[in-house]
Amino acid sequence: MSNIIFSEKEAYKFLKVEEYFDRYKEWEKLLEVKSHAFDADSKTLTLNFSKSDDNPCSILIQFPQQDTFRLRFNPGKTAEEYSSKNSPSVLLNNFEDLTRLLDNHEHFDIEVIKDVSNGIELVTKNVDNNPEMKVVVNHQPFSITVYMFAPHEEYIVWQTADTPIYYTPNGNNNYAIIQAVNKPANAKYVGFGEQGGQSLSKNTAQVNYFNFDNMRYRQVYDRGPLDPREPLYHSEPFFYEFHGVPEHDSVTGVFIDNTGQVLVDIGYINSSRYMIGTRFGDLDFYFFIGHNPANILDSYTEIVGRPRLKPRYCLGYQQGCYGYERQDIVEWAVRKHREYQIPLDGMHVDVDIQKNYQTFTIDTEKFPNPYEMFHNLKEQGVKCSTNITPVISRLDPNYSTYAEAKDKGFFVIDRRYDPGNPDSKIYQLYGSGHQFSPNNGYVEGFNSGEPYIGGVYYGNDSDGNELGTPGHYADLGRQEVRDWWGTQYKYLYSMGLEMVWQDMTTPAIRDYRGDMKGFPFRLLVTDNSHSDAKPKLTPAIEVWNLYSYNLHKATYQGLNRLHEIKDSRYPNLSERKNKRNFIIGRGSFSGVHRYAGLWNGDNSSDWDFLKMNVSQVLSLGLCGLAINGQDIGGFEASAVDEGKWASPELLIRWTAAGAFLPWFRNHYVRKGRKEFQEPFMYVEWFNQYQSGKLPEPQNLYRMVLPICKHYIELRYRLMQLFYDGMFENSLNGLPISRPLFINDPGDQSLYNDKEAFLDNEFFVGKDLLIAPVLDPQEPQSIEKNYGKRDIYVPYGSDWYCFMNNTMPLGSVVEGGTTIRDFDASLNLEGDHINFIVPIYVRAGAIIPTIELEQYVGQLNKEGKPNPITLNVYPGVSGKYTMFLDDGVSRSSAFKMPPNSGWDEEANDEYRRTEITHRYPDQKTREINVKRVHDGYTPKLETYFFVAVLHDPSETKGASGCLKSVKIAEQSIPQVQGSSNLNSSPQNAWYYNESINISFVKVFDNSPDITITAEYF
């Protein structure tokens, strides 16, 4: 067997994860530390080694936080050769600046406990001089062991495997490197970003981080979206280890900061260890410790930053279609939503709007008055995006973006690494599970020194015509090109565009013009993988996931500066000043959450995509990427039957589940592939084209509109809950939609016998538990659920079934209970529509709701208030944090010190309100509403409501469950009926007997209000 693990040819090819790890035991190994040195000032430990060829190399272990270390290794580098610059994923450009910022936020010291010839022991200590993390390095054999501390003991939370590091040459002056780590038998592994598979836990999985235009998630293995090995559109190599030390509350995390291909084996090859591998550049990873997952996420987002505050409307319902080909069709889609009163906030117009696929343009033959269209839709509350791809068409020399970029030398130039090698012209691609070469050795413009010729291909239209264009690509590794790219949005935004749909970001290139539908692997691209360092030219495969990151960053920064453009040809740009920008992108790399939301690529109308939708969204949320989600209903036709529309049952279930996930967009393709996917078309299309004859089962087609509409409306009534989650995400990184263990980390059953519920249940915020049905009612198998499912409510709290304030609460359910066969079947009998998605609320929870709107901010725009109702559930106590601001201004965000990597426009213009309740005695309940930061005052909402929901066991008197209500120790009158309460000019309350809820109207005239309710 050859000692060469990866041939020169293999080094510059995509590798499957199993190919990468196949012969790892034959690789070179780091077995013995020759010497070490610790620099207390920089908090850096250097480990020196001698390779088998007697050349030296070094590992650096750096401590940016008391609970974090960073390990860097490259067999070709000694200590002084490592860069002080961070990757673009990290919040600040320079590592010293980052550590200084973090130390100012939370100072810590490092104590050298033991420093001998065979090893060193370091302990980080917090500002109170208490130990946080202990790192022990042994020289011979080489090992690293990490400890956490409990009262009177320390315990191991991370330990390298017997052979800690493997490495082998991989291409020109590069190495493939593997870090091997002991894997506790009890441990669970979650996170990993955008990956396939239904399970939130990725135990025994193998995953591959390599941005790839992977239509239907099945191109490499052809097994579909439930196979986690498929490389997808986005790379977020960050994961958690839970339950590794069952007797202690400890969680660890790992972030691999490398924009080349990264591969992870979580105990698949050997159950006793997990392995992380890089193919190019440094092995560079951050290791985090904490007592719960929120600690890890907080520390991780301290390193990579937190999302900039996004506009409130991005949480509304969105509609997109590849095939809304004309202005009248776009206007039709909005008009129909308004006629059917389906709330809608966003319309996403695909490349149909472009003139001959020229990015940043509008075809005024198909869209004759874009300014009027965008502004009329905006008047109806609908904000528009257009699809922006990185390709710049080369067919028309008068196309201004093309001409400018060519004149300025802003395109990626076709220069190749090792151009004389015949393999340079043989491109690689996978499709339907098979590897092949799509170009047969022909390359246009090969190594010409002219702009690289790529192109985009969108398939064929219904007449068989090819859709797309050849073109060039902006060289976004250069700052001046990124600045230029940002200015290209000036025309679209002067026409009235409000957001950007960033597509084909890898960049997705026509298959015969590059490798794996991207740049040719040996094409030399500008590599800015070290921020602020002088960029260099690097083969594209070595920094494969970097281009899409630079694309999103360039767009975000450009949109923030559009208001600075002073050009009479582009009016209205001054309106962009201080305005939050929103980008929904398809694929990038860790850190992009600072700039954009993510949609998870081109899925299809198959149940497997719905099944994995929840775990995929939760996994990305665990990486700090709160705004993310799949295309509701599926973009492509089903891989199973190529149906002309998503099945009605699938669309109902997907819309109902999606109503509780952050990014909520129905998006599909026409172009002869699908006829419709809008909920109202499941009857209307057949009325128009089939004489009203519905397919069987007809009742399902008729149910699509009312059920989808119901859950979209519920999303809007819960909008404040979602917005509070998004605002909190910008503060601490916690996601909007959360796995069960984020809120209930002490429930050990979630890591054991109830682990399966992690895949199909989640929270919105901390107290609203969602348990959607993700399977068809009557699948073609022996297992028929008939629309029923089991529900697990976590241990440690009691729970109430959510009644949507249309029915009285039922009896409380004890935490730790599994509810068997909850009936969530599809029918419209009575009040059953409220239970098609099972929802439970934690006892003591406070859930804000608002009045229904057809778009975010509708009532205020009409000059009407939309008061918040604080729904207070039965329970001993509870707490909720609410954030109010104008929903659109950058200045609303919390202010940070200068040079902290945060939005420079942030100015604390928000209100933060803490709502708490408790029982000072058995018959008295106090509800306190206190402003803890008061930088914003609502213009129209001078009052709010408190809804006190009553347990059915509560004693009732003549006035309901409450004997009296006081505000600021003053009794307030009880009125009869909701209309009298709504019109009351003073504080008042009333009891609704039919739903067993007491409503209190509270005028918001004090920063600290206490409502006292006396019970019978």
Write structural notes for this entry.
This protein has 1016 residues and is of the alpha+beta class. Helix content is 17%, strand content 28%. The protein contains 18 helices and 52 strands. Strands 1, 6, 7, 8, 9, 10, 11, 13, 16 and 17 form a 10-stranded antiparallel beta sheet that branches. Strands 32-31-30-27-21-20-19-34-33 form a 9-stranded parallel beta sheet. Helix 8 (479-487) packs across helix 10 and helix 12 runs parallel beside helix 14 (698-717). The chain is globular. It starts with 7 loop residues before the first helix and ends with a strand. The mean pLDDT is 97.
Radius of gyration: 29 Å
Which percent band covers the strand fraction? 25-35%
What can be said about the biggest beta sheet?
Answer: 10 strands, antiparallel
**Which structural class best describes the helix and strand composition?**
alpha+beta
Mean pLDDT reading: 97
Please outline what is shown here.
The protein is of the alpha+beta class.
Could you list some keywords that capture this structure?
10-stranded antiparallel sheet, 52 strands, 18 helices, 1016 residues, 9-stranded parallel sheet, globular, alpha+beta
Q: Secondary-structure map with pairings?
A:
Elements: H1 8-11, H2 17-21, E1 28-30, E2 35-39, E3 44-50, E4 56-65, E5 68-73, H3 95-105, E6 109-116, E7 119-125, E8 131-138, E9 143-150, E10 153-169, E11 175-182, E12 188-191, E13 206-209, E14 238-242, E15 251-256, E16 262-266, E17 273-278, E18 283-290, H4 293-304, E19 318-322, H5 327-339, E20 346-349, H6 370-379, E21 383-388, E22 391-393, H7 400-408, E23 429-431, E24 434-436, E25 454-460, E26 466-473, H8 479-487, H9 490-495, E27 499-502, E28 524-527, E29 536-539, H10 546-560, E30 583-585, E31 597-599, H11 607-621, E32 628-629, E33 631-632, H12 648-658, E34 665-669, H13 681-689, H14 698-717, H15 719-732, E35 737-738, H16 740-743, E36 762-764, E37 768-770, E38 788-792, E39 799-801, E40 818-823, E41 839-842, E42 846-849, H17 858-861, E43 869-872, E44 878-884, E45 911-921, E46 924-934, E47 943-949, E48 962-967, E49 970-971, H18 978-983, E50 988-992, E51 997-1003, E52 1008-1015
Parallel strand pairs: 19-20, 19-34, 20-21, 21-27, 27-30, 30-31, 31-32, 33-34, 43-47
Antiparallel strand pairs: 1-10, 2-3, 3-4, 4-5, 5-18, 6-7, 7-8, 8-9, 9-10, 10-11, 11-17, 12-14, 13-16, 14-15, 15-18, 16-17, 22-26, 23-24, 25-26, 28-29, 35-36, 36-37, 37-41, 38-40, 39-41, 42-43, 44-45, 45-46, 46-52, 47-51, 48-49, 48-52, 50-51
